[in-house]
Amino acid sequence: MKSLATLLAAASMIVGLGFVVPAFSEAKKQTLLVVEIDPIVLATGWRATDIIGATVYDDDGKSLGKLEDMIITDAGTVPYAVVSVGGFFGIDAHHVVVAASSMELVNKKLTLRGATIDILKALPNFTFAS
Predict the structure, then answer these.
(1) Pairing with 42, which of 3, 5, 6, 60 sits 20 to 30 Å away (CA)?
(2) Distance CA 82, CA 68 (A)
(3) Contact between residue 115 and residue 106 where contact means Cβ atoms under 8 Å apart
(4) Does residue 81 lie in a domain region?
(5) In this predicted model, what pLDDT tens digit does every residue of 21-34 receive, in sequence order?
C-alpha cells in the first residue's frame, strides 16, 4: 500500500512538471516594473523643482553651495545631486556629485550630512556631457 502511494505521488509530480515547463518557455521579457507607492510618503517628498537652486548647508547650518541639478542614470540607480561649491554667481564654481540620499531636510534647510567646503572642494569637479 505504501509503495502504491509513493508511485501515485511520483506520477502526479511528473505530470505536474509537464504542465509547468511549457509556461517557462513561453515567458516574455518584462518591460515595465510596477511597484506599490505610498501616496502619503510621496506627497511629503522633495520635488526637484522646489529644491534645485536651493542652498545646501552643512551640519552646523553654514552654507556649502547651491543644488544645481539632479541626475537619474539609465540604470535607475539612486538619484544624484550636483552641488556647486564656491565661485561668485556661478562663475568659477566647483561642481560635485553626491548621492541625493546623503541630504536631509533639517529645520527647512537642505543639509548635506558630514560635508564641509574643504571636503567638497577636494572631490573631482563634475562637468555635464554635452
Answers:
(1) 60
(2) 5
(3) no
(4) yes
(5) 444 545 666 566 67
